[in-house]
Write a structure and sequence with these properties.
The chain has four helices and five strands, in the order H-E-E-E-H-E-E-H-H. Helix 2 crosses helix 4 (about 125-145). The chain has helices at about 1-5, 55-75, 110-120, 125-145, and strands at about 20, 25, 35-40, 80-85, 90-95. A hairpin with a 7-residue loop joins strand 4 and strand 5 (about 90-95). It has a five-stranded antiparallel sheet. The chain has a single domain (about 1-145), classed as HIT-like (HIT family, subunit A, 2-Layer Sandwich), CATH 3.30.428. With about 150 residues, the chain is α+β, with helices and mostly antiparallel strands. Helices cover about 40% and strands about 15% of the residues. It is globular, with a radius of gyration of 15 Å.
Length: about 150
């Protein structure tokens, strides 16, 4: 799926919040969690070690800006940040908002997957889709004003 997202063959929910020659950012296409943003490389990169420092620094500034916007606009205070080298060629970093529903599954890292599996079913609703669209629109607006 990473290749298809990078090639713009799959539209992520709400559309890209950021895309340039090196990075694409948008809502996770498999989960219905407003603010669950994935930052992925456009070119094939298997490890963080293959990314030039300037590009990686840019991505972390982008992540920081997104986190600040989600905090100010939606009051999200805590996030789980996941770096994944197992993406079949498109390195990515995921920014997962910590939400009250996560507590049902426990507070540790190993409980993230059960929460994500639950959210795929329980939050696959028109209301969550609308929230994701709204969140993406706001993120695009605020990120474009920072260019």
């Amino acid at each position: 799926m990473g290749c298809q997202i990078a090639a713009n063959e799959i539209r992520v929910p709400g559309g890209d919040i950021w895309r340039d020659d090196e990075w694409q950012a948008g809502h996770d296409p498999n989960n219905f969690i407003p603010g669950f943003i994935v930052f992925g490389t456009i070119r094939h990169v298997h490890s963080i070690l293959e990314i030039p420092d300037t590009s990686l620094q840019f991505c972390w500034r982008l992540i920081k800006n997104v986190r600040q916007i989600l905090g100010r606009q939606y009051g999200i205070e805590k996030f789980v940040t996941i770096q994944d080298d197992e993406t079949f060629g498109h390195f990515h970093i995921s920014l997962l908002p910590v939400c009250p529903e996560m507590r049902r599954f426990g507070g540790s890292v190993e409980n993230i997957v059960p929460f994500l599996n639950w959210s795929k079913k329980a939050w696959n609703t028109p209301e969550k889709t609308r929230q994701i669209e709204e969140t993406a629109d706001r993120l695009r607006f605020w990120l474009n004003t920072r260019r």
